[in-house]
Amino acid sequence: MPKVGTWQLATGAAVVGLVLSVGAVTLAGPWDTGQRTAERRWAAARADPGGAHHDASAAHRPPPAPSAPPVLDPLGGTRAAPADAPGAAPGGLATALAPLLADPALGTAPTACVVDLATGRRLYGAGASRPMVPASTIKIATAAAALGALGPDHRVPTTVVAVPGEVRVVTLVGGGDATLDRDRLDDLADRTARALGDRGADAVRIAYDTALYPGARLHPIGPNDNIAPISALMVDQGRNDPASTGPATRSADPAGEAARVFADRLSEHGVRVDGTPAPGRAPEEAVPVAQVLSAPLARVVERMLTHSDNDIAESLARQTAVAAGRPADFAGAERAVTDQLRRLGLPLAGTRFADGSGLDRRDRATAELLTALLAKAADPEHPELRPVLTGLPVAGFTGTLDGRYPAASPGSGLIRAKTGTLTGVDTLAGTVAAPDGRVLAFAFLAGDTSSPYAARPALDRLAAALLE
Fold first, then answer.
1. In the predicted model, is pLDDT for residue 442 greater than 80?
2. Catalytic residue among 21, 231, 294, 308
3. Maximum CA pair distance of the chain?
4. Which of 111, 160, 176, 417 has the most CB atoms in a 10 Å sphere around its CB?
5. Three-state helix/strand/coil letters over 100-122
6. Catalytic residue list contains 308
7. DSSP string covering 415-442
8. How confident is the model over 151-168, as pLDDT tens digits?
9. What are the Low complexity biased-composition ranges (predicted)?
10. Which of the listed residues 269, 293, 317 is the one where a domain comes to its end?
11. Per residue in 88-108, is it b (16+ CB within 10 Å) or e — as a string?
12. Residue scoring higher pLDDT (29 or 284)
């Protein structure tokens, strides 16, 4: 019988249809469960599990951004950019971008890079190879590494196991699903109860196994409402109030809380639970009793990028480490992400992936790397990376760009970008549908900024200038 670690990473067979559009992305799960406070102030509404708005101002919002076939063609590699396209010459972009990049709101030395996704040609660069603190734009790298290592159809399991013939003790084994919620845990309890009933067991003791993720549980920033202690087993991302969104207090023991919720649900399904769930390794001879799977990785990545979910990001970095056979801790994840991006042939000089979420100020990325990642995701040779593009927030419509680019802005619906914010750091990296039908990738990274309320509009103006 295989060891638990072998089947913990079992994948589902479902295939996700990826639609490249400048329209709103359909999401799974609650709105932005890991977003840091500073970014959330700029996102004016919440989305339900289907991505629709349900706040008081929803009726006054513009309709969803339409799909644009001319935008899709370059992403699929079916047409090249016109040689005489406006702004195609680097000098033309320099004239438009250089004055905006000199805005004092962006600090003393912001960096920038713009490339044509259809041709891979760099159209503009300013300090593009200089490493900067990327904040949450590093999630683009995390997403690409996970998709490259695991594939877009991979699903993360949460499993109940028991030793054959000894079903008086069952072990809840965490597979690292940071999207596990109470509904799916209830489904697991129901499946477990039915399986135990088939084996004639009406009472059990529960252990829970989090061995998949070794090492420190706390992020280097320490206890924080923007991220739970990192664990291979958690429910509702360890939120003390499962209905909460945005920054919220978290359980100090997410795995223990998940096991207690599972025990309660198992009791509701007719199985008596003796004692309190306790941590413990699943026996090597244990076999699966019941299992639930996450959504396909493509959808999980889209949710993570759209809403800058820190908990999912850290889980994806560790899933990349597991796929590479490395320890799923901070150090192992850093090596695995770096190795995966190197295999993709990306420019990594001076970069560092100290975490998967961008909360760690030791992270380093370049504008050149971020645009290269976006270009790689648009490459027809790498369809597995396409969720990196489809998950980017849509200006004025979704995620962390929901409250930026009002309806009257030329960028509304045409800019898709990952935001990044830490104190003194403001970044933006994504794609823009230019008037000539080309799709451009851009990255703007600013450090030593004095106020996000000045830096963000300055970044938005840079991206919008690509539409002129």
1. yes
2. 308
3. 76
4. 417
5. HHCCHHHCCCCEEEEEECCCCCE
6. yes
7. EEEEEEEETTEEEEEEEEE-TTS-EEEE
8. 999 999 999 999 998 889
9. 76-87
10. 293
11. beeeebbeebeebbebebbbe
12. 284
Report the C-alpha dihedral over residues 260, 35, 135, 373, rounded to 10 degrees: 90
* H/E stretch holding 171: strand 166-174
> Tell me, what's the pLDDT at 51?
28
- Residue 253's domain comprises 157-293
Amino acid letter, 188: L
Q: Three-state DSSP class for 246?
A: coil
Tokens standing for residue 310: 């820190």
Number of domains in the chain: 2
Report the alpha-carbon distance of residue 240 to residue 223 in Å, rounded: 14
Single-letter amino acid code for the residue at 435: P
Burial of 152 (0-12, 13-18, 19+ CB in 10 A): buried
My answer on whether 249 and 388 are in the same domain is: no
Residue at 322 is within a domain:
yes
Same domain as 302, residue 289:
no
- Dist. CA 265–CA 272, nearest whole Å: 10
Torsion of CA 382, 388, 394, 399, to 10 degrees: 160
Q: Are residues 459 and 314 in the same domain?
A: yes
Ranges of H-type helices in 308-358 = 310-323, 330-343
CA–CA distance, 253 with 250 (Å, rounded to integer): 9
| CA–CA dist 172, 118 (Å, integer) | 47
Give the DSSP letter of residue 132.
B
**Strand 157-163 and strand 122-126: pairing?**
unpaired
Q: Which of 21, 136, 251, 315 is catalytic?
A: 136
Q: Which residue type sits at 63?
A: P
User: By C-alpha distance, which of 206, 243, 245, 219 is closest to 34?
Assistant: 245
Residue 391, helix vs strand vs coil: coil
Residues 309 and 189 in one domain: no
Residue range 278-289, pLDDT digits in tens: 999 999 999 999
Give how far the C-alpha of residue 378 lies from the chain's centroid of Cα atoms, to the nearest Å.
18
Paired sense of beta strands 278-279 and 203-209, if any: parallel
Q: What is the pLDDT of residues 93-148, one digit of tens each?
A: 999 999 999 999 999 999 999 999 999 899 999 999 999 999 999 999 999 999 99
Phi-psi region of 37 (alpha: psi -120 to 50; beta: other; left: phi over 0): alpha
Catalytic residue among 139, 231, 376, 412: 139
Strand runs (DSSP E) across 40-165, as ranges? 111-116, 122-126, 157-163
The model carries a pTM of 0.83
Structure confidence by residue, pLDDT tens digits, 354-398: 999 999 999 999 999 999 999 999 999 999 999 999 999 999 999
Q: What is the mean pLDDT of the chain?
A: 84
Q: Which SS3 state, helix, strand or coil, does residue 160 take?
A: strand
